[in-house]
Prior knowledge:
176 residues; mainly alpha; Rossmann fold; two-stranded antiparallel ribbon; 4 helices; 5 strands
Amino acid sequence: MEISTKTCQEVLDLEVQEILEVQEAMLLTYADRQNFTVVKKWVVSESAVKPGRKAFNEMVNFIKENGIKNVLVQEIDRLHRNKFDEAVIDKLIEEDFVIHLVADKKIIDQNGENDIFMRDIEGAVARREIRQMERRTSRAKMKRLESGEYVCQAPLGYLNLPRMRGSKERFRKVEA
């Protein structure tokens, strides 16, 4: 059986879209129950491994410029996964900013010392998970390299091929 890479990507995109729709519905329901007015929505698809996410920075600037005091988030790891983003959020919390972790049913503000402590722990766990993923990915790439497989995207002029059991061929030259 052969499944095209495009088809697999379409399925993944559909699953991601469905997940985002469920998360948005949950957040909007929570906002409605709390009598909050949703001013703006962000969907941040950038990796949170490194600081400097454009959408995250836009969100923080919008919050500061418009005096926003409440932000609804699915879970804490959707908001920050690196120490730089965490420091930005800490500074906002010191300025009476409130984070509503809807899935976890928690509210983090400057008065919730235990919640801030737990958020610190959860942030550390998220950073640990990222490091573990990076190590697993490196090990998998090394194993593929050691067995003679190509681990990157096909070079210019070649097509990526779907992974077939028992086959090491990962790309094929484009015929003119």
